[in-house]
């Protein structure tokens, strides 16, 4: 570089709960002399602190994180205050439809060098004042759409049609689960736990939204927090006050509330 010529340094933060995800982004960024990684964060809370401390020019932000996800981070910071964001997702193209509508960039894991370079180039283009204002307007629009979803959640794991498989993460690995393999789903706050034999996986999605994407011939909701695969049901026994108990083939017992009992009993009467 010629003497007296100073290249602008782009202060960048990487946010991903998976160490491998952070490593991949950092290694790709090391190839760009304009980038300075000022912080790496493993969760949303530390991301908020890093954003306040470093006032970065650019953020690579994982969407799916426990407790405080990527959308939550944007919501807490405020779309009007966010620097350019490259969202990162481990799920298929349907997962990023909200980003595409508002022309926000994203990376699908695993990404190649060419796709990363394109996303980084796009992010750099947003660093200009007018482009930054436009980006923040689009970001606000995206967050408004998310807020319109039930419980402020967006379904990221499933296609717009009936879900036939799920992409889940466990121990830094992606696993494909066929819907028919699932024994039952258990709602837990803003997540749903997927029970498959003796294994348990977690998705960030509301149980109501999940039920809308499941095959009604295969799955039935039996409680406000429970969906069961009807092929796994061995018997249904009366319980108290109009409730029932479902007994699965593996012996597990699940409560059926009287509110949802008709949807279970009607097909088998």
What name does CATH use for the topology of the largest domain?
Answer: Rossmann fold
CATH class of the largest domain: Alpha Beta
User: Which range does the strand content fall in?
Assistant: 25-35%
- The tally of structural domains comes to 2
Summarize the amount of helix as a percent range: 25-40%
The string of secondary-structure elements, in order, is EHEHEHEHEHHEEEEEHEEEEEH
Beta-strand segment tally: 15
Low-confidence stretches: 1-5, 147-160
Label the CATH architecture of the largest domain: 3-Layer(aba) Sandwich
Major beta-sheet overview: 5 strands, parallel
Helix segment tally: 8
Order of strands, main sheet, comes to: 2-1-3-4-5
Q: What is the molecular shape?
A: elongated
Explain the overall architecture.
The protein has 269 residues and is α/β, with parallel strands linked by helices. It is built from 8 helices and 15 strands. Helix 2 runs parallel beside helix 3 (70-77). The longest helix is centred in the middle third of the chain and has 20 residues, at 129-148. It is elongated, with a radius of gyration of 22 Å. The model is unreliable at 1-5 and 147-160 (pLDDT under 50).
Topology of helices and strands:
Layout: E1 10-15, H1 19-29, E2 35-41, H2 44-54, E3 58-62, H3 70-77, E4 85-89, H4 97-101, E5 106-108, H5 113-125, H6 129-148, E6 165-170, E7 173-178, E8 184-188, E9 191-196, E10 199-203, H7 207-213, E11 219-223, E12 226-229, E13 233-238, E14 244-248, E15 253-256, H8 261-265
Properties at a glance:
Rossmann fold; alpha/beta; 8 helices; 269 residues; five-stranded parallel sheet; OB fold (Dihydrolipoamide Acetyltransferase, E2P); 2 domains
